[in-house]
C-alpha cells in the first residue's frame, strides 16, 4: 500500500498544477480559522465578533467546521480527475503496466491516494476544530468536547466517496474537463429524477428515494447547520427543529457507492484496450 501511495505522490508532486490545487484544497478549509477571529464594526455602534456568538461552542463546532470544510472538496476533485487524465494523455498508464504494475494495483494506487489525502484533511480539520473550540467554547468538559466527533468520520467518508466518484468518472471519459462536466450532469439528473418521482407520487417519497442517490447521499452525511444554529438561539421555536445527526445507514450508503465506484473503475480498466 505504501509503495503505491508513494508512486502516486511522486507523480502529483512533479506536476505544478497538481501541487497548487492540493495546496489550495488544504488551505481553503482553514478559512474557518479566519472567520473565527473576524470583528465587524457597525459604524461605531457595536462590534460583531463571530467567535462570541456561540457558534464555536462544543459540540456544535464539529458540525459547523466539517460542513463548511466539505464545500471545498471540488479543488481536490480536480486533482483526482487530472490523475487519470494525465495518465492517458502522457501514456504513463501503459508504461506503468509494462513496468509490472497490475491493473488492480493501478486502481488501488489511485484509491489509496484518495484515502490518504482524505485522512490527512480530516486530521487537520479535526485539530483546527479542537483548537478553535478550546479557545472560544464555554464548555470544556471532555464528555461535551467529544460528544459529536462522529462528524469527523462523516467528513472523511464524504471525501472518500466523492473522490471515488471522481475517479470513476475520470476512468469513464479519460479527460479531466469532461469528467467534471459529467459530475455536473449527474447532479442535474438526480434533481430531474426527484422531480419526476414527485410528479408521479409525492415529494416525501421522492426525497427518501433521492437520499440513496450518489451525490445526495454524500451531501446528507453532514446536513446544513444553519437551522441548528437558529435552534440554539430560539429553542422555543420547535417548528425549526430537524434531524442533523450522523446516522449509520447514511454512512453505509456512501460506503456502498464508494465500493461500487472503485470496482467499476477497475472493470473499465480491465476491459479497455490500452
Automatic annotation (TrEMBL):
Q: Which residues cross the membrane?
A: 20-40, 60-84, 111-132, 152-173, 180-199, 248-269
Q: Does the keyword Zinc apply?
A: no
**What Pfam families does UniProt report for this protein, alphabetically?**
ABC2_membrane_2
- Which terms does the record give in the GO molecular function aspect? ABC-type transporter activity
Question: What GO cellular component entries does it have?
Answer: plasma membrane
Is Lyase one of the keywords UniProt gives this record?
Answer: no
- Could you name the domain of life of the organism this protein comes from? Bacteria
What UniProt keywords are attached to this protein's entry?
A: Membrane, Transmembrane, Transmembrane helix
* Name by which UniProt lists this protein: ABC-2 family transporter
UniProt source species: Ichthyenterobacterium magnum
